[in-house]
Write a structure and sequence with these properties.
The complex is a heterodimer of chains A (584) and B (452). With 584 residues, chain A is of the alpha+beta class. Chain A is 47% helix and 16% strand. Among the domains of chain A are: 88 residues, no CATH class; 166 residues, no CATH class; 81 residues. The mean pLDDT of chain A is 89. Chain B has a 5-stranded antiparallel beta sheet with strand order 6-10-3-11-12, with no helix packed on it. Classes of the chains: A alpha+beta (584), B alpha+beta (452). Chains A and B meet through helix 2, helix 3, helix 9, helix 10 and helix 11 of A and helix 1, helix 2, strand 12 and strand 13 of B.
């Protein structure tokens, strides 16, 4: 015979269980719109039955809540994190490339194409009246505006590069802040889960943070079971540990002392671990917003200087390293190269152009004089300047524009110096650069490396005196002659001026490159977004709170509670009868 | 599969957003009239648009060049027609003269009018268009003739061939007065200051020998000197005041028959009258603007002075007519000669008078035939210029065609089809409204609405 009050206990457990489930439903409904909240379910089971008296069998003893479990599939989480990195990267690239396109503004009426077409129009107009000061002034002002447009663009590209650099720093700060928070939550989770119960809401919070982190940088989350209900969560980024249990490691931004790409603005950030290790930004698996900013900032279309060493001397002071046929010669007068993976400063370099006059042909070469304080390896084999980034970012476009102004200035100058201005002087340059003094002169291709888009200028002599523009090769006999001007104009159709063809083709190719990359970024972003949304869709299918379901649960648990209460009142009546009425 | 409220909301929002994006796209297209606003929307359209724009801007400039050329050539042509009219008038006057029987006052009137006509012809040489002298080749800042007396020193080099050595008749006063043939080369100017060098050289600079095998000697004389017209063998008389080189009859004849003969002659002139031709437009010469400065000379060479306008890529048209092709120095000298002949003529009933009258009508006859040649020449220049104008008009028509074609292509490339875009906008609007309605329905109700 069981205890007299056995049934009351069973009913009481029913009441507790129904109330607990109702509480869970309330929690779910309250958090229905909370980001990253996963639905919780109170699991219940029948308590252990008691053996009945005699051969009656097992008597049920009621119900109990065994745990509050969150409904979440870790598979979708890791899938989400894996894909979210690309969405982050292309989100950044898309907006940054969009800005870049706006800077060039080629489809509007103020872009570089428009400027160059305007330049030719004015020169063409000048050819109908080359000695007239007002025609000259108009042509010169279009030349001026042409060069100024490059200066303006240079300024804006620099700003964009600085913004991308700021983006890099913000990303790093976000990574640090998330690492910090995750380490804190990890500790709380460990504390709470010591009881053997899951810290559902803290786990949601952690997942939320990791969701955010996954859009910044590729991560791997590992949860190691250390026994005794202890679980250690580790976040690995790029092969290096960011968070290990309750400990976080931090990244920092270190301003570069030397330029990586010759056209970079100074003081761009390198990323390092605070502990001093290198953080490898050129890792091919890197993606996420950080990669987006790095690509936009440093992307040089694989155009950095990198060569096998052809000869070297290692006697100190003044060890030298020589490379042949350098891809580019427009490098800083002093700076940094990486020799076999070691950063080495050079104090100066000399450039020797190709010599075809004597056989065998001597190839062009660059000889670096190495700073004694940063010695190169004893037998250097390979040098590199900056990083080899495939993306076409700001560094790439600046380089392209520099190439344009250098070639264009040289081609136009080579014609213009043959002409005579109205004073009968020849050898006057049409284009120079801000601060040009004549030494070193602008004559051979290498000397034109002095010009870049930030300092490209029409010769200030011509700007201040319209008579100094040369249109003819013989001003005494043909003041209205246009032979020089015609040659300048014919350059508009010089298909051999650039790899891409004539000057206007050059801009068109830049626009095409940018537009295609931008379109690709938009398409990737769209595609990646739909992938991420579909994963999110799957995730939400499991973890999302559904109103109808909760309503049903609410009604269900309410009914259960009502019934358990009814049992209680029935028991009450039984006791009333048993105690008060029996034998009265 | 569980469909939760968040999923429903997200999908709903996503769909509405997509519809809105499409709506916004067509709205932008309709308000700008363009297919794209950013190159990334369609890189091919964007780059093609840039190409077409460059072409259109180039064509527009060529068209403006053609318009400019047109005005220039019209001004030039007008001026040449004036020259032609003046020459016709001079011809009429000279015919009166050769008909004879004119009194002294008539003669004076004719001289006055001929002088006036000569000046008018020369002043046409200074015709300008927008301040630029149209006949001055590429020295457009410099008129063809002097506008006032000028004393700059010029060293002028002229080139001649055997056709320039002409036999002319001169009346020689003597007993009895007679008409003699002399062989002369007429320089382009009279009143010359001095000659440079005492020997004659050919164009290559080799000294020319006389009939005796020794170099010809240049002897400077005045026209009033006795025997000025009769150099001895081995001498060439350079007549300063009339600007002539007179050969010995024998040598002159030999040279004039030798088709290989050529020579150049350099002299210095330092006084120019108003309306006299400026040497730099006609000859290789050097000019010393400051008589005190012996080192600064301007070199002028008879270079190609075509003013070329581009009317297309690698297409140019020469729009100017050179003054030296229209107003020749011969024409000016012809005028001078007839005016001087009339001035020097005094009717007299002597043997000399008869000879002089004959000489005058000879000169008048020669003048008429020269003028006829000049008329033919100006007509040729006018028709040359006219045919160029025709070419210009054709070019203009072609450029206009090109402009229309390229503008069409541009529009085809970047402009929207209005009807098509409106239809698309309307259909997307319908879809958008439908999606809003559907979403509105779905999110309103839940199980709660049906639980009493």
């Amino acid at each position: 015979m069981s205890s007299s009050f056995f049934g009351v206990n069973v009913a009481l457990q029913g009441l507790y269980t129904a109330q607990g489930s109702l509480n869970t439903t309330a929690h779910n409904i309250s958090n229905a719109t909370t980001t990253g909240f996963s639905r919780q379910v109170a699991t219940q089971k029948a308590t252990r039955p008691m053996a009945g008296v005699g051969s009656v069998g097992m008597i049920g003893t009621g119900v109990e809540i065994t745990g509050i479990e969150q409904q979440r599939n870790p598979y979708y989480d890791s899938k989400y994190w894996n894909n979210n990195q690309y969405l982050g990267e292309y989100n950044v690239k898309q907006t940054q490339l969009d800005q870049l396109t706006y800077l060039f503004n080629e489809t509007s009426d103020v872009g570089l194409s428009k400027e160059i077409s305007n330049l030719y129009t004015q020169l063409q107009k000048l050819s109908t009246n080359p000695s007239d000061p007002s025609y000259r002034a108009a042509a010169i002002s279009s030349l001026d505006s042409f060069t100024e447009n490059f200066n303006r663009l240079s300024e804006q590209l620099n700003n964009l590069q600085k913004e991308a650099n700021f983006g890099v720093m913000t990303s790093v700060e976000q990574i640090n802040s998330i690492a910090d928070q995750v380490a804190g939550i990890n500790q709380q989770i460990i504390n709470q889960e010591l009881t053997g119960q899951k810290a559902n809401d803290l786990r949601d919070e952690r997942n939320n943070l990791i969701d955010k982190l996954s859009s910044i940088i590729p991560i791997k989350v590992i949860e190691v079971d250390e026994g005794m209900d202890l679980k250690r969560t580790t976040i690995i980024l790029n092969g290096q540990t960011l968070v290990d249990g309750n400990k976080a490691r931090y990244l920092e931004c270190v301003p570069r002392t030397q330029l990586h790409n010759p056209e970079d603005v100074p003081d761009l950030y390198d990323i390092k671990w605070v502990t001093g290790q290198n953080f490898y930004t050129d890792d091919l698996t890197l993606s996420g917003e950080l990669k987006g900013y790095l690509d936009i900032r440093d992307g040089n279309n694989n155009d950095n200087l990198r060569k096998y060493v052809s000869s070297y001397t290692s006697t100190l002071p003044g060890a030298t390293i020589t490379i042949e046929n350098p891809q580019r010669t427009d490098i800083p007068a002093s700076g940094q190269i990486t020799v076999d993976g070691i950063d080495v400063n050079y104090t100066s370099f000399t450039y020797t152009p190709e010599d075809t006059t004597t056989l065998p042909v001597t190839p062009s070469s660059i000889t670096f004089t190495i700073d004694d304080t940063t010695p190169a390896p004893a037998t250097p084999t390979y040098i590199e300047m900056g990083e080899n980034m495939e993306f076409k970012g700001i560094a790439h476009y600046k380089r392209r524009l520099n190439e344009f102004v250098r070639t264009f200035a040289k081609e136009m100058n080579d014609i213009h110096i043959q002409g005579q201005n109205l004073y009968g002087d020849s050898n006057v340059l049409l284009f120079t650069f801000k601060g040009y003094t004549g030494t070193p002169p602008l004559n051979d291709e290498f000397s034109y490396n002095q010009i870049d888009i930030s300092n490209f200028r029409i010769n200030s002599e011509i700007l201040t005196d319209v008579n100094k523009l040369a249109t003819t090769s013989d001003v005494v006999n043909t003041i209205d002659g246009t032979d020089i001007l015609q040659q300048l104009l014919n350059k508009r159709h010089d298909m051999s001026m650039f790899k891409q063809g004539k000057p206007e083709n050059f801009f068109q190719s830049i626009v095409a490159e940018m537009a295609i990359d931008s379109k690709q970024a938009i398409d990737f972003q769209k595609g990646q977004k739909s992938i991420v949304s579909s994963i999110e869709y799957m995730r939400q299918s499991i973890m999302g709170v559904d109103a109808n379901e909760e309503t049903t649960n609410m009604v269900k648990f309410q009914q259960a509670y009502k019934l358990a209460a009814k049992i209680m009142s029935v028991m009450d009546e039984i006791f009333d009868v048993t105690i008060n009425r029996l034998g009265a | 599969m569980r469909i939760t409220n968040i999923m429903l909301n997200n999908t709903m929002l996503l769909n509405i957003m997509n519809n809105k994006t499409a709506l916004s796209k067509y709205e932008t297209q309709l308000s700008t009239g363009k297919k794209i606003t950013k190159p990334s929307e369609d890189p091919i359209v964007a780059v093609r648009a840039l190409r077409l724009r460059a072409s259109v801007s180039e064509i527009t400039q060529y068209k403006s060049n053609v318009d400019d050329a047109n005005s220039w050539m019209t001004v030039t042509e007008k001026s040449m027609v004036n020259v032609n009219d003046i020459l016709k008038r001079a011809r009429g006057l000279t015919i009166q003269l050769s008909n004879g029987a004119l009194g002294t006052t008539d003669m004076e009137k004719i001289v006055a009018e001929l002088s006036e006509l000569k000046n008018q012809v020369l002043q046409e040489g200074n015709t300008n268009y927008g301040g630029r002298f149209v006949f001055s080749g590429l020295k457009t800042d410099n008129g063809l003739v002097f506008t006032e007396k000028n004393t700059d020193t010029y060293e002028i080099t002229e080139e001649f061939n055997n056709k320039n050595i002409v036999a002319t008749q001169r009346v020689i006063d003597g007993t009895p007065p007679k008409v003699e043939d002399i062989y002369r080369v007429r320089l382009s100017y009279d009143q010359i200051a001095s000659v440079s060098g005492t020997t004659l050289v050919d164009n290559a600079g080799v000294v020319i020998n006389g009939s005796d095998g020794t170099p010809l000697t240049v002897v400077t004389v005045n026209s009033t000197d006795t025997n000025a017209n009769k150099p001895v063998t081995g001498d060439v008389h350079f007549v300063k005041d009339t600007g002539e080189l007179i050969f010995n009859n024998v040598e002159g004849k030999t040279f004039s028959l030798n088709d290989n003969f050529n020579m150049k002659f350099t002299y210095v002139k330092n006084s120019f009258e108003k309306n006299q031709i400026k040497p730099e437009h006609y000859f290789d010469c050097i000019k010393k603007p400051d008589p005190l400065d012996n080192t600064t000379w301007s070199n002028f060479t008879k270079s190609a002075e075509g003013m070329n306008y581009q009317t297309g890529y690698m297409q140019t048209i020469t729009i100017n007519t050179l003054g030296r092709d229209v107003i020749t120095t011969d024409l000016v000298r012809d005028f001078d000669e007839i005016i001087n002949a009339i001035k020097n003529y005094t009717p007299a009933d002597t043997e000399l008078g008869v000879l002089q009258e004959e000489q005058l009508s000879r000169i008048a006859g020669a003048f008429i035939s020269d003028i006829d040649k000049q008329l033919a020449n100006t007509l040729e220049q006018i028709s040359k210029s006219g045919s160029k104008l025709n070419r210009l008009i054709l070019t203009d028509a072609r450029l206009t065609d090109d402009e229309v074609n390229f503008t069409d292509l541009m529009s085809l490339n970047e402009d929207i089809d209005l009807a098509e875009t409106i239809v698309k906008l309307t259909s997307h609007e319908t879809v958008y409204n439908a999606s809003l309605m559907a979403s509105g329905r779905v999110i309103q109700t839940s199980l709660l609405d049906f639980i009493r």
